[in-house]
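User: What would this chain look like folded?
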Amino acid sequence: MLNYKKLFRQLLLISLIVIGTTFSSCTTKESRSESVKKQSVEEVEIFVATPTSVINEIYTTGTILADEQVDIKAPISGRIMSINFKEGQSVSKGQLLLKIDDRDWKAQLSALEVKLTKAQKDLERKKELYKINGASMQEVEDLQSTIAELQSQIEQMNVNVDYANITAPFSGKIGLRNLSTGAYVSAGQYITTLVKTNPIKIDFQVPATYIGQIKEGQVVQAISKSTNDTIYAKIYAFDPGISTSSRNMNARAIADNSHNKFVPGDFLEVRVILGRIDNAIMVPSESVIPDLDKQIVFLYRNGKVDVATIETGLRTDSTIYIIKGIKEGDSIITSGILQIRPGMNVKVRNIL
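Assistant: Here's the prediction, encoded as structure tokens.
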């Protein structure tokens, strides 16, 4: 009987130990679970939406063009008698630049003028003789034809003499030359270049999306990539169509270059202001998330993650304009985007 009591006591003791161990284990697991839950709350940074004014602008590239530019070429063949300009100097409209030997044409011109004078006198005599039947109508007509041909030859000689004197078609700066006095030039041979650099023209392209927001007379800012100098130009013309390859439209502006700081052919960065947006909500670019066919942002609301579908507009280097979906005072989550989900508990670490 004693053995049974002893055995019962041992079994009871073992049962109490097992129950205690199980209870302790459960308590430990629950404690750990609570600890994990506490540790899993993500810390995030938020940006509070605040209305601001922003300049709606685009940047594009442009090229400086001369107001006028022409290659000076020899209109006729001949030997150069004189060069009347210095390379790189400014010249005036009508100024003699180069003279080609015209002595032969002038000699021919003098001879033709003598022949013309004689033919005109002969024609007068023939007309008088014709009146008294002393000459035929055929003789009169032959002399008239001769006079017409001589006049045509004289006109051509005058053109050649005029071509021999090459003048500046407009005022500007003359370029370099690779010819010397005494050299023979052929008709059409390049001599130098004449450029008018004040004012200057600026060519640039505008994406078709913004065409309706840019008008003739609008002022653009341009910065030289070579010198970092800034110039302001006024748009005065557009190409009539949009390029099918780039979907851009060519625009042209004109600017004062009286100080000759800007050189044709230089590369520019062109800033085009499209307008000003007041009460704009601008959010950090990293907070905007592409989601299939829409864009979303995560919001912080009462310690949890919420989501909002948005419509975006213009972009700057670091921010995006929110057209719809965000209102003033909303808290946009900007960090931990990949780790959070809607409905998750989060804690604010920093307000930007």
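The chain is about 25% helix and 40% strand. If you want, I can go into more detail on any region.
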